Amino acid sequence: MCEAALTRLESTLRGFHGNPASLHRAGQRADALLEDSRHIIAAELGLDPARLIFTSGATESANAIAHHLGKIDSCRPVAALGTEHACVLDAIRHHVPRGTLDVPVTSDGHPNLAALGNASAPPSALFAMLANNETGVIHDLPSLVLRVPPGIPFAVDVTQAVGRVPLNLPSAVLDNGFIFGSGHKMGAPIGVGFLHLPREMVWTPFLQGGGQEDSRRSGTQNAPLAAAFASAIQHRSGLFDTLASQTLRRDRLAERLAAIHPSIRFLCADQPRLWNTLSFVAPELTDCRQRWTVRLDKAGYAVSSGSACTAGAGKASHVLKALGLGEGESDRTLRVSWGWETPDQDLDGFVQTFAEICRAAAV
Question: Which residue in 35, 136, 155, 248 is deepest, having the highest Cβ count within 10 Å?
């Protein structure tokens, strides 16, 4: 969690104890904090505060969208890129009777939209994340909007992009699409996210209960979490003038890793990507009992072999499979990511440790 969010969270947890839905003064103070936070987040992201709902994160938001789509149109599938997060793909499978219309991607992560035109029935929506959580690839949403058949709304997961790059979403997505994300990827606390609804629609709520969030998402709102989220977004947006130097730091790290061993191959290396993510196929280790993630973890570096949400379950990455990687390459593909505050010394130490492991393993 970034310092701005932590400071805001600590102060609001101490000072705001009321339920935002209550009419007493403590409740109204919490409600005012909640609404101020909503407007700050909307302003920073270029969204409409009246259409922004607070959720527990992207998983809840994806399920809410899939639930809505399955309820309003049970006769059509929902399309999704093959590299979407598991929360999206599983939500569609669970909530949409006609299931998923898979949109394949190239080895560089570009969607092949021919599947939309060849479908027997047009999908009721298309899930297309702005930035991929495993490769860091940033999709060209304005181009996708022009290539997608008219009448198919977008559902855009911006979790990886929020607080890292300006969103700059096209008007077709802002007005007619669903936009959702989580806070914890960019320095906000775990457990807070948002869902931005299309301009004109009759929403079918996923969570039933007290009718909070204008009857669009029931459940007591957590004003301190929302306030910390807003503070984190404000702080991160103030760092965007350093994006060029952050991208240069990523590219220098890739060059140093590539010089360690000739077999190292970076995924989607020629595509626009987030400045904080590298995904690459590491050399094959002779001792299969000691995976790269284990060896690096013992040295103090926490890296992933895929999405952190699925790596713990021992599942192979569906993203890497969609990119065309075989089982052998997928098993040794590493995702390395870092933050705004990560010092150069940490990246230097990672390169040195990686090189030492290669030498020790005689790869």
Answer: 155
Each residue of 251-303: pLDDT tens digit?
999 999 999 999 999 999 999 999 999 999 999 887 655 689 999 999 999 99
Which of 110, 76, 109 has its CA nearest to residue 92?
A: 76
- Domain 3-237 coded CATH 3.40.640.10: yes
Residue 281 near residue 336, CB atoms below 8 Å: no
Per DSSP, the chain holds a count of helices (H) and strands (E) of 15, 10
3-237 against 241-361: fold identical: no
314 burial level (CB within 10 Å; 0-12, 13-18, 19+): exposed
Residue with tokens 């994006």: 243
CA 89 to CA 11: how far, in whole Å? Answer: 38
* Residue type present at position 298: K
Mean pLDDT (the chain, rounded): 92
Say which CATH topology domain 241-361 has: Aspartate Aminotransferase, domain 1 (3.90.1150)
The domain limits of the chain are 3-237, 241-361
Integer-rounded Cα radius of gyration of the chain: 21
